[in-house]
Design goal:
- The complex is a heterodimer of chains A (621) and B (837).
- Chain A is α/β, with parallel strands linked by helices and 621 residues long.
- Chain A is built from 29 helices and eleven strands.
- Chain A is flat.
- Chain B has 837 residues and is α+β, with helices and mostly antiparallel strands.
- Chain B has three domains: 195 residues, no CATH class; 31 residues, no CATH class; 362 residues, Methylamine Dehydrogenase, Chain H (7 Propeller), CATH 2.130.10.
- In chain B, the strands form ten sheets. In chain B, strands 12-13-14-16-15 form a five-stranded antiparallel beta sheet. Chain B has a four-stranded antiparallel beta sheet with strand order 7-35-34-33, with no helix packed on it. Chain B has a four-stranded antiparallel beta sheet with strand order 8-9-10-11, with no helix packed on it.
- In chain B, a hairpin with an 8-residue loop joins strand 12 and strand 13.
- The radius of gyration of chain B is 79 Å and the shape is elongated.
- Chain B starts with a helix and ends with a strand.
- The chains are: A alpha/beta (621), B alpha+beta (837).
- Chains A and B meet through helix 3, helix 8, helix 9, helix 10 and helix 12 of A and helix 15 and strand 32 of B.
Amino acid sequence: MRIKKKHQAGAAKNFITRTQAVKKLQLSLADFRRICIFKGIYPRAPRNAKKANKGSTAPTTFYYTKDIQYLLHEPVIQKFRDHKIFARKLSRALGRGDVSDAKRLDENRPRYRLDMIVKERYPTFLDAVRDLDDALSMLFLFAAMPASDKVSARVTEDAEKLCNQWMAYVARERLLRKVFVSIKGVYYEAEVKGQEVVWLVPFKFPQNVPTDVDFRIMLTFLEFYTTLLQFVLYRLYADAGIVYPPKIDAAKVQGVGGISAYVMEGKREKESLLQISTTTKAITESEMASRAQTIATVLNKITDRVDGDVIATTADDEEEVIDTLDKFTALPSTDTVISDIIPQPDETLPEDAVKTLFSPFTFYVGREVPLEIVEFTILSLGGTVVSESVLDGYLHVDTDALLDAEEVDFDARQREVDALLQKVTHQVCDRPALASRVPGRIYVQPQWVFDSLNRGRLVPVDEYAVGATLPPHLSPWGDGAGYDPEGIGKEEEGEESEEVDEEAESDEEEIEGDVEVEEEEEEEDEALQHQRELESEAKGIIYSSAASKKRKRADKKPKKSAEEKQAEEEKELRKIMMTNKQKKLYNQMQYGIQKKETRRETLKTKRRKLEKNKQNKKRVL
Amino acid sequence: MAKRKLAGAKKPAAKPQTSAQGTGNRQGSKLANLQRRAPRLLIMDADEDNEYDDNNGFIDDEAEEAEEDEPEDESDLEEYDGEDVSEQFEGLLDGVISDSESEDEAGDKASEGDGEENDADERTQYFGEDDEIEEHEDAAEVIINSVSDDDEEDEYLSKYSAASDAESLSSISSDQEDSRVAYYTTGADGKPRPIYHEIDPHYSSDDSDLEDVNTIGKVPLSAYDEYPHIGYDINGKRIMRPATGSALDSLLDSIEVPEGWTGLIDKESGADLKLTKEELELVKKIQLGENAGEVDPYESTIEWFSSKTEIMGLSAAPEPKRRFVPSKYEAKRIMKIVRAIREGRISPNKPKVRPEDEQPVYDLWADDLQEQQPHVMHIPAPKVAKPTNDESYNPPEEYLPSEEEINAWNETDEMDRETDYLPRKFSSLRTVPRYENFVRERFERSLDLYLAPRVRRNKLNIDPDSLLPKLPSPQDLRPFPIKCSVTYRGHKGRVRAVSVDSSGLWLATGGDDGTVRIWEVLTGREIWKATVGDNDEAVESVEWSPVKDSGILAASAGEKIFLCLPPIFDDETEVTGQELLAAGWGYAAQPAPVEQINKEQQCKWIKPSEKLASQGVDVVIVCRKTVKQIAWHRRGDYFTGVSPEGANMAVLVHQISKHNTQSPFRKSKGIIQRAQFHPFKPMLYVATQRYVRIYDLSTQSLTKALQPGARWLSSFDIHPQGDNVITGSYDKRVTWHDLDLSTKPYRTLRYHTRAVRDVRFHTRLPLFCSASDDGHINVFHGTVYDDLLRNPLLVPLKVLKGHTVVQSLGVLKVAWHPKEAWLFSVGADGTAKLWTS
């Protein structure tokens, strides 16, 4: 029989240390990191590190050997090597001052593409959609980053473009399901192809960039995520029947930017859309007043989702409306189209009520409100947005128009805007007070929009009125410990009311005690009750049911707890018979449960305290 | 005049030069002029008084005119000896100088008219040639001319006084043609004979010999030893032997070391060989083997082959064909490119696109396969946890941290914090600032994604209650003791021993107060009490005899065992008891055999004292060490007393009928804790600290040693059927041993929080219990099946809590009622309790 050698099979073969891996691939550590990020190769924790490390217990990073073996034939690695040579040649050329040579080299620098890696990592489209969370969060971060020596302007620009394309798609298809404004940023959840995609968008402020953050790593991730999102978006757009990449209206980019600059163009109805939109008047208008288009696209966002036929018919029917709107829109207005939408079969689903939650409404968004959040949310719910900041520019200051000032007719614009403003149903406003109010409009704070989406219904407006103290904004994903602040509120209210009732009852009982007796459902032992009655009779006191009731109440709780107690006791007894292993596992589970429980309890007690303080204050007042 | 003489002394050498100066200054090189000027300058300084003449241009002209005739006499002049000539000249000069001045004026006036023109001509010519020198040396030159001419003029005037002006003019023109002529002398035929310039032997001259060098050719110098001269110069004049000084002179010379001195004698000239600096350099170069010639190592290159088309080419080869026939190869290459352009493979002047933009986007998942099972070893990265309410910009108020929580959060290390943020509340959306750690958190997520080792942890998504073993409900296993119905109070201090008599009516207890008490079970009334312990010795054990209607109670206190007959039974019982106890006295009365002396020493059966006897004690057995436990044999004739400190006599078996005591063990097996007889077999179970040993009494051998795995056993009990044993230990364990299975426990249970003091089987019902220092008694159901394949069923039934823990001692002993599912327990709190179902 052959003697088995140690460390020749099993974990020792299956795992490879990082140093070994780098040597095997003949790469520098930096290149190894890059390829690991691209290919999604990660270290493993072997079940038995000692065995994997051939008897040594030194702390080591292990990779799965086959992962590394697959890498040996990776074309991108060859490109890395080529790049090394290229860098050498380039530096030599530059050192010699051979500029033309350097330029030629730079033009022909080795480039690699990551599309096949994307396909490899995500064999099916759904896999890719499932893994979009990190990609989106990273891209949205870079879209909000200031361009610096570490992050070039091109990178941020590209990231922003992709982010806007994503948002434009989500808004158009109305896939947004949840939105949560946290102190970190805004979390969105969209349901894309049946997959939940959650991403975090920072607030639109310049980001704090710590010095010890290695941007090479971040940028490598970004490179991969950019490629991934490009292909995913292409597929999504294709599936939705939209042209990718969507056209960008340069004028709108200068205006407010964001998703409003994207012209979502259907593949089929291209012609019809053009027919409607390209009246000469509209073109001249739009050229003349580029700002106007920002409003237009805001309105237009959803138009193209409808079939060309529908648009054609509606265009005929609603000619007047279109004409009026054409003065400042390149495409037909939302309202006209929305009203004529033939209900899609999937819209019969109950959850689709959310999709059209805001469709009858037009929102006037104040300039103090972060437009990108509110606009995205409203558009995703089918609403229409009119932004105050855009109108400001359109009506009063127009830098573009200043060049050819004679063409700007502010009065005409004013008329257009007035017509538009008449449609406004809601005004989103984030100010402590408003000087004047337009009758017929509902004034709400931005949180109303978010809460309405999260609840899936229109939340009562009164709590969100201008200047009002807002109700708490809860996470749509709930609390980690399973604490429900709203539930506890109701519970407490219930308890309180009970107590109040009790008090009232007891007062009444003293007067007309006998009436209540009938209502009581006595579970007590009849004999015992009889005994008591007799006793009280003997003493000369009318046996009131109040006493018994109170007693019963007092009994009820311990009784309940006694049952629980017994169950608990039994549980404890059964625990005795558990094996050690089971006991450990059980205790581990209990630890987590206990922790959650304590968290819930602390929150509950805090809440009660707060409620009491509030009540006391009220009483004092 | 002295100055003139000086000039005259120089005449032989200077004369030809001066004459050359006069005529040749027009055609001679600048260099020649300059060379000659240096000696003249000296002369000029000397002739300062001639300035008057110098300013006068006429003299020059006249002198030149005179010169025109002179060269004709060259031949004659050559014939003269050097000495003669010089003498002749000197004589002439002397004569001439005396009357020269007077004639000067006259001649000047005569040639005034045309002389001026000539002068002007000459000057212009002169200046034209020597532009550079003219500026500096203008004045000097004029002087030189005048001086040199001065001498010649004198000569001329002395010889040709009659020469007409016309002649002189024509001679001048001829002079200009033959510039080699230095001057003319009157030849033998009376015609002027030209005397030529001495040949300047420069590089281009045909004779390379130096003028001054001796022209004796290959004739050795020694041939002239007899003559005053040593040879001839180029003009055939003798070269006089240089004066050789005396030996002293040569010595002095050698001492002074003149410049260029070599210490050698020139073989040709016989003089000291002097070497100039340049020559020395040359010698040095030769010695070093360097290039001695005047070769410039850094010569400028001559471009033999240049872009310039030479009229005469270096090569006469005809132009090759390839120079004028178009290249086929090139045509091929070009056609290739042209074709590529036509086919569109190459697009020239392609607009520059960003390389990133030219990456095409296409439907990557066009051939979307159906969902594949991911690789077994693939571990997808966990998603980021979803945000909870406390992350909200406007959370419910209870989420906001209190002051202490904030402090605690700030104090904990960043790594240990549960959340990386503190909940905050903002009144409205516009007041929400940026989140400082956004970039860092995303960066850390990136690091996690590619650096964090991943491991697949099977998350047990099970209800923790499912881990609990499935057991029959205790309710179905009734009866078992549930509640405390009677408490027997009376003992002072701990109650250490308890026993119920076989009828189940009487409970005997013993405690630290040294009393044995008997209680009526149902009422809890103390019926009988006996103080057996002397000096507060605690009653360690109390056991009723299993013999029915005998009423014998064995109690141990200190080293003594008391056999009592409590006066609580009827007479009949009392009599039987007394008979049993008294039967042995007969044996004891007999004289003891010799071997029994040892035994007697270990243990003595004595009659009790009066006091004890009045309390009901019939027999006292005195042992050597404290008896901690008593256990009866089922027949009631034997019982064991265990005194743990007794070494090999720790376990003693006492026989009532014969008042006899046996020590079954010769050697100590450790500290014995308990000993017990098998319920129906002749076997003795002995528990040491670690083991429970089973001895077969009939064969007197060890049959089994159980290993409960505990450190220190406190108690054990045998199942009434004899095949199972439970043990309790001070390290909180209770073990169940199935003797048929193994020596190791079938189940080890740990549920008491303190030491287990006692374990007990019910004799009739499938119940057992354990009592512990935590004050609890755990009651179990334990069914043992007849089927050997089925394991015993153990079900915890009840935890009886009632005893208080005093000085960290709880329940010390328990006893089951012989018939009912009742349990008696005694504890450190000084009470005994009855637990009923």
